[in-house]
Amino acid sequence: MFSKTCEYAIRALIYIAQKSKDGSRIGIKEIALGIDSPEYFIAKILQELSRKGFVQSAKGPTGGFFMDGSNLKLSIADIVREIDGDKLFSGCGLGLKECSESHPCPIHNEFKHIRQAIKTMLEESRIQLFVEDLDLKLTFLKK
């Protein structure tokens, strides 16, 4: 459903939010280990997300990534739109360019309900909620 880049971005942001809530800064090696991702790949993703304000970073010996309170309010939909664009929320289920209400593909009418349900779920899913579930050990980020 998500690109690999988007999957890593979501997992990394949730991980950073959980690990930095006490004011800590988290390094790339720890993030990569914590979410089971390639270090070079997650570094590139986080550099871009930092530039766009999804996560903060600091350089130096005590540097690393961290999140502030406003970032905890980000929805998973915000992250998906930034990384993968809006296709998940508006695209055709069969990948057709011409699909629309007036010119529907064979699965259009059923798929638009599924697409809307996914959009609603991801818009209501905030990073803070995932951090709370991780703290309670209700969910996990790594196999």
TrEMBL record:
Q: Which InterPro entries match?
A: Tscrpt_reg_Rrf2, WH-like_DNA-bd_sf, WH_DNA-bd_sf
NCBIfam families per UniProt? rrf2_super
Q: Mind telling me what this protein is named?
A: Rrf2 family transcriptional regulator
The protein's organism comes out as: Chryseobacterium oryzae
